[in-house]
Every structure is written in C-alpha cells, then in structure tokens.
Amino acid sequence: MKKIEVRKSTDEKRIFKVIRRIFPKAFPRFSANDFYFVAKAGGRDVGFIHLIKKKGRILLQGVGVVENYRERGIGSMLVDKAIDYANQEKMDIMLKVRPTNCPALNLYEKKGFSIKKVRDTYILERKQFT
Questions:
Q1: How many CB atoms lie within 10 A of CB 96?
Q2: DSSP state, 129?
C-alpha cells in the first residue's frame, strides 16, 4: 500500500479537482472560515475533508475518498486530522449524517461522536475532552 499523507491545503484548484472526482456535482466553498485537508497517496490526491469554523464550533461539512482508495483507512485518517484541528482550536465538532449511511455512522462513533438530534438526518457532535 502506498504511503498516505494528510495535509492542510489552501490550493483551491487542487481541492476543487479532488472534490469533483468524488462528488461530480459539488461546488466547494472557499472563505476565511473554510478549511480543507487533502489526503495524498503515491503523488495523487485521493481524499479530502472540509471543515467550517462557525459560531464557536467546527462543522464537518464533507469528507470523501476516491473510489479506488476506499477501505484503506483514509477516511479515518481525514477524520483524525479534523479532530486534531478541533482540539488545537479548542472547539467541538458537529456534522450531519443520513441514518442510512451506516459506514459513516460507524466511523464517527469509533471517533467519539455521539448523536445529538434525530430527525430525517442525524446530527452528531464530538465534545472537547478537558
């Protein structure tokens, strides 16, 4: 398996390209409150995580891994980076997940997230540990 690196990126063209490979209809946001980390394997961008600083917390807006690179722990590495970033900023993380997205729910549960609200979408939160 190729070595995976996850780094913060501000290269809008690079971020847009990897997001569109995974989600062809997506239009990424780029503002002072948007933060992206990109996963790289063998010189190729293979995943991303999008975070937004908003109202004193971090919103995990999106995460994705290129299809051929799934099931290799890259999504987990990206979520770990988000958690590290939130810890540095001393902020909680929140996100929305569809109840039918079991792989995502399982991953977030393993990473310490808990369900805060339930409707047609689950809202998960990971509190800072002090």
A1: 14
A2: P
Q: How far apart are CA 65 and CA 40, in angstroms?
A: 10
Look up the pTM and report it.
Answer: 0.89
Structure tokens at 10: 């501000």
- Architecture of the domain whose range is 4-95: 3-Layer(aba) Sandwich (3.40)
Tell me the CB-side half-sphere exposure of residue 4, using CA atoms within 13 A: 19
pLDDT tens for the 130 residues of the chain, in order: 679 999 999 999 999 999 999 999 998 889 999 999 999 998 999 999 999 999 899 999 999 999 999 999 999 999 999 999 999 999 999 999 988 888 889 999 999 999 887 777 878 888 876 5
Domain locations in the chain as residue ranges: 4-95
